């Protein structure tokens, strides 16, 4: 089967197959990193909400579970995940087109994923990503078209035989989806920053408002202050992380734009781009792991 | 009625500027009472920014009416804060910037929430 597909892919060299596989791996890792960023937004927002509940417990006559709400609602999250899964599926299928073994088990759910992407309309894009953000109606339409196109490609990809043609036909789609993700990440980064700063203020104010109680329990006071210092470090780390993820998505875009270069005689430029993109994706993934181990 | 994208953007940016300046003001404030008052303001502004990042701002959306009420209440607190900020924060540059940012937010409010 693998040999058959390689033959179908035309005259792709083993080097081209290997390069596309590296690009595909890095794309899948970038998608995974971006998905984790959504969780980071939710975790930090939850922490901010809880810190506000603790600080205002007496003023608000107790705790109300309804006051704690997620930042990204389930519908908006589902659309984001579908877009990312679509991108992942595209990268994985592109790689198999060149004879590489399948990198994901997305095949089983590709049909329903593709259908959900083709059903996305401009109002869903606006509601899910840019309810108030400075994005024009034209941009919303461009992003919607790109998401629909990704869905259509996933429906028809089994009929595609020529990887070079596929890359060429998907240039606009991948570019627009990467730009959608970058705009989204900028908004989420601002939200994380606001939530983190508010958490820091809430926690500090809680200590100040209860100094007398803490004076009877210096160990507890020490732990709370230590927590503030740790949070300060986390704020810096989260900021760095979001900048890196945005940068990584930009690298995905620029690498895909130049990806047809793997079929040319001179692959120096595309090799550098893929290596750079792959290194960045792996670095962010490791960074996530290190953050998890310290939190 | 859909609120013009430019007005939304300007309002959101003015709130974000104020939020950042109030953060600075909080850490510059020298008394617990002043910090407590500023915390209350930052919570209000942060909640409004969160809603703006989450909720569609057209006058028919479910989030519009509660948001307008929250913003109106916050504006009253902000106007009071303008009279108090020099007592709360003794770094003149910070206090002046906060006062100016509050003016901006209240000016943009009229465009965002027409009567």
Protein model, in words:
Helix content of chain A is 78%, strand content 0%. Chain A has helices spanning 2-8, 14-55, 74-97, 107-118, 122-129, 137-156, 163-169, 171-209, 211-215, 218-257, 268-294. Chain B has 115 residues and is mainly α. Chain B has one domain (5-112). The mean pLDDT of chain B is 88. Classes of the chains: A mainly alpha (295), B mainly alpha (115). The A-B interface holds A 45, 48, 52, 55-56, 71, 73, 126-127, 131-136, 187, 190-191, 194-195, 197-198, 201-202, 204-205, 208-209, 211 and B 5, 8-9, 12, 16, 19, 23, 26, 32, 35-36, 38-39, 42-43, 46, 49-50, 52-57.
Largest sheet properties of chain B: none
Task: Tell me the major beta sheet of chain A.
Answer: none
User: Are there runs of chain B of 5+ residues with pLDDT below 50, and where?
Assistant: none
In whole angstroms, the N-to-C terminal distance of chain A is 46 Å
Strand content of chain A: under 5%
> Given the helix and strand composition of chain B, which structural class is it?
mainly alpha
- Tally the helices of chain A: what do you get? 11
How many distinct helices of chain B? 4
The termini of chain B sit apart by 12 Å
**Structural domain count of chain A:** 1
How are the SSEs ordered, and which strands pair?
The complex is a heterodimer of chains A (295) and B (115).
Chain A: H1 2-8, H2 14-55, H3 74-97, H4 107-118, H5 122-129, H6 137-156, H7 163-169, H8 171-209, H9 211-215, H10 218-257, H11 268-294
Chain B: H1 5-28, H2 32-54, H3 64-88, H4 92-112
Helix pairs in contact in B: 1-2, 1-4, 2-3, 3-4
């Amino acid at each position: 089967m693998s040999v058959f597909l390689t033959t179908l892919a035309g005259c792709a060299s083993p080097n081209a197959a290997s390069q596309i596989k590296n690009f595909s791996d890095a794309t899948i890792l970038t998608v995974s990193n971006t998905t984790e960023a959504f969780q980071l937004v939710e975790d930090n927002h939850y922490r901010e909400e809880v810190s506000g509940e603790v600080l205002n417990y007496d003023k608000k006559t107790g705790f109300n579970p309804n006051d704690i709400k997620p930042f990204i609602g389930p519908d908006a999250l589902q659309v984001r995940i579908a877009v990312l899964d679509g991108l992942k599926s595209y990268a994985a299928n592109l790689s198999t087109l060149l004879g590489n073994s399948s990198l994901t088990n997305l095949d089983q759910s590709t049909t329903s994923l593709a259908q959900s992407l083709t059903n996305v309309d401009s109002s869903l894009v606006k509601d899910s990503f840019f309810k108030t953000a400075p994005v024009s109606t034209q941009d919303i339409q461009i992003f919607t078209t790109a998401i629909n196109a990704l869905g259509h490609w996933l429906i028809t990809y089994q009929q595609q035989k020529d990887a070079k043609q596929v890359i060429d036909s998907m240039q606009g789609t991948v570019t627009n989806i990467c730009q959608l993700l970058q705009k989204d990440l900028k908004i989420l980064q601002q939200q994380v920053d606001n939530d983190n700063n508010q958490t820091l203020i809430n926690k500090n104010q809680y200590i100040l408002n209860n100094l007398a109680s803490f004076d009877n329990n210096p160990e507890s006071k020490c732990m709370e202050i230590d927590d503030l210092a740790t949070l300060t470090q986390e704020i810096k780390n989260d900021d760095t992380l979001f900048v890196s993820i945005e940068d990584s998505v930009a690298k995905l875009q620029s690498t895909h734009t130049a990806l047809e270069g793997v079929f040319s005689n001179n692959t120096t430029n595309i090799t550098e781009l893929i290596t750079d993109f792959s290194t960045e994706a792996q670095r962010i993934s490791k960074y996530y792991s290190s953050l998890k181990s310290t939190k | 009625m859909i609120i013009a994208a430019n007005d939304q953007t300007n309002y959101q940016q003015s709130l974000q500027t104020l939020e950042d300046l109030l953060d600075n003001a909080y850490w510059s404030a020298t008394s617990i009472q002043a910090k407590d008052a500023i915390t209350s303001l930052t919570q209000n502004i942060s909640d409004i920014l969160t809603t703006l990042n989450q909720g569609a701002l057209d006058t028919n959306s479910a989030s519009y009416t509660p948001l307008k009420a929250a913003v109106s209440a916050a504006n009253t607190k902000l106007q009071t804060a303008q009279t108090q900020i020099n007592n709360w924060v003794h770094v003149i540059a910070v206090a002046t910037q906060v006062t100016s940012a509050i003016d901006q937010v209240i000016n943009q409010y009229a465009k965002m929430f027409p009567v």
